[in-house]
Write a structure and sequence with these properties.
Number of helices: 8
Largest sheet: none
Shape: elongated
Structural class: mainly alpha
Order of helices and strands: HHHHHHHH
Strand content: under 5%
Low-confidence stretches: none
Distance between the termini: 53 Å
Length: 157
Amino acid sequence: MKLNWVRLLACVVGTNIVGNIGSLATFSQITTWYATLEKPWFNPPNWLFGPAWTLLFTLMGISLYLILSHAGKREMKTAVLVFSIQMVLNVLWSFIFFGWHQLGIAFAEIVILWVAILVTIINFSRISKVAAWILVPYLGWVTFASLLNFAVWQLSR
């Protein structure tokens, strides 16, 4: 497989742009509303979220590139559709949690996001094992974020 730098860059930049749409709901809320919430002992420092998500969106872009590089595969359309759905769910979570302050609904939505990521990994694995494995840290982070979301929700009740 020949490396197509333009396609790779488009995938990485594109996933980061889409991912950063969610940050529109987050930026002003981190130091205001979110700072007032009681958080569990395992809540990471706020500065960690930006670099973590940038790395994860970059990995998602690389993974997507690998899938798109297998243009002859029938499964690609389904895999890209599932990937797109999980991206929308990812962005939506930020608006539900930070924008609308709906912690319980955000928890339900992040569980759906987790399932969508798993389905994406399964679909990607049918095309490229490497593309699937690249998404595992994302699933791990969303697992952690789910626990954090649940804990903050319970502490706020």
